[in-house]
From TrEMBL:
Keyword Kinase carried by entry: yes
Protein name as it appears in the record: HipA domain-containing protein
Keyword Transferase attributed: yes
Gene Ontology molecular-function annotations: kinase activity
Keywords per UniProt: Kinase, Transferase
The organism's place on the tree of life at top rank: Bacteria
Domain HipA-like C-terminal: 31-196
Amino acid sequence: MDTIDFTDLPRRNKMYAGANGNKICVIYEDMPYMLKFPPTAKKNKEMSYSNSCFSEYLGCQIYESIGIPVQKTLLGTFMVKGREKIVVACGDFTEPGIVLQDFASLKNQMIDSERNGYGTELSDILQTFDEQTAIDKKEITERFWNMFIVDAFIGNWDRHNGNWGFLYNTRTDEMKLAPVFDCGSCLYPQADEDIMNSVLEKPSEMDFRIFEIPTSAIMINGKKIKYFDFISSVQNEDCNRALLRILRCIDMERIGQIINETPFISDLQRRFYLAMLTERKKRILDYSAGLLNKKVRK
């Protein structure tokens, strides 16, 4: 695959918030892109930089393969003080008059709520879906649970209220769902070669990264949800429906092709990513769907 050198592209003064890595705006093929640089690996001191650029790219590519609207992502390079860095370019889907507003902003409109917009208690989020009037309830509910299932599949631990939301038209006052964005915390971005080898060789290490970590950023009674525990409980009907919707759209052959065609990553990374996705689908999603089918037949 041909790779892109973003170093000398025209830049814009637009700035981006967010804690994970530096970001600049460049113009590529007449379109604005946010370039995300790899942040330091805070939780793994053995790594100089995390693999979050690969996580961002692959997570978004997987979302696209499933058929959920998502930001466009490209991998490339950028020279910084004579050193080449691998970066991910994320398509900027805003435009003059069309601004991004996160779910936390919508949640803040619920003036009777005791929790602020960034609180991720599930009951509070679901209450917001019921009470808000800016967007169709069925549409926002389906997007939330679709993301929950895909994030369970790709192992995303950071889908909070600030990194999903809506596009607001300042001229017409209309609002619609924004494409999915910010997948840099999926696929174990701080897993180095030792961790990858250990997971591939030791069933206990694989089990830990399927059933225990990552957790969702969504909470129940102040405790972060474990994806397996919640989905396999088959207690939430909207989650159940999303599980079946998403499973019908997951094409592991296509996902394997995406991983094999991803530039810059090593053969070990390819094996690790594919193994984790295969096992998470089988042991979380497929298993839970089996339990759901048994429940329906009773």
